[in-house]
Amino acid sequence: MDNYNNEYTGSKNRKYTNGEITVYWYPRKCIHATTCFRELIEVFNPRKRPWVNMNGASTKEIIRVVDLCPTGALAYKYNDQITDNDTPSALNGHETEIRVMEDGPLIIRGSFKLTGTDGKEYNNPKMVSLCRCGASMNKPFCDGTHSKTGYKGK
Amino acid sequence: MENNYSAEIKILENGPIQIKGEFVFRDSSGHKTTEYKEIYICRCGRSGNKPFCDNTHLKHG
Q1: Rounded CA gap, A16 and A22, in Å?
Q2: How many angstroms separate the CA atoms of A126 and A147, rounded?
Q3: Which of A30, A106, A118, A144 is least enclosed by beta carbons within 10 angstroms?
Q4: Residue B19 belongs to what domain range?
């Protein structure tokens, strides 16, 4: 019934650790945006097995790139925050993350309810990108216009 | 049915984005917090307190 949670319980899910953090990999969520390996091939190399090498870069750098994953197929948690009964779905299934992109949109990811100005509900989207610059032709969503108008915004 | 979402997002007409509930908020410098329970994000591009709304949109229509 709930596809969103099923993606966290598949048998192909993997986790990788460097002792400090654990990176979770949910292949069913991946849309092959290629962000991870273009940013950090030393850690995320799809030609290698295992494809994630946690010794290839610093924890800080790994976190930076995991956070760039647009679909949430990659996630991480500090090991000292992981408890024995932590399952990937418990980590992520009911969380929402709001990210402000510098000079760009607001990205919302996770499990949330979105209601439009007319009261219309968007049923459980997994990720949306909302206009912050005021110039999108597809409001409330971002259509990339901010880069043409030179929008500046923290 | 039990709600299966942690946060509610409302787009306010001619106004900001209202976000209520439990969420991780990450600003443009990468700083994360879970302290906020209700925030309003500027949607007009003119707030003096970005990313938050400061009601500047009321002056500009």
Answers
A1: 5
A2: 24
A3: A118
A4: 7-60
As for the ipTM of the complex, it is: 0.91
Query: Has residue A48 got a pLDDT over 90?
Result: yes
A140 neighbourhood in chain B, CB within 8 Å: 11, 17, 43
Q: Please, are residues B24 and B39 in contact by the beta-carbon 8 Å criterion?
A: no
Interface test with A, best of B1, B2, B3, B4 (most A CBs within 10 A): B4
Cβ distance A132 to B42 less than 8 Å, yes or no, reads yes
How many A×B Cβ pairs under 8 Å? 110
Which of B17, B23, B50 comes nearest A97 by C-beta? Answer: B23
Segment A137-149 mean pLDDT: 88
Domain holding B18: CATH number? 3.40.5
CA atoms within 13 A on the CB side of A127: 11
CB contact under 8 A, B24 and A98: yes
Domains, chain A, with CATH or none: 3-92 (3.30.70.20), 96-149 (3.40.5)
To the nearest whole angstrom, how far is the Cα of A127 from the nearest Cα of chain B? 12
- Token pair for A91: 């980590």
CA distance A144 to A141: 9
Going by pLDDT thresholds of 50, 70 and 90, the confidence category of residue A2 is very low
Q: How confident is the model at residue B45 (pLDDT cuts 50, 70, 90)?
A: very high
**How many domains does chain B contain in total?**
1
- For residue B2, being part of any structural domain is answered with no
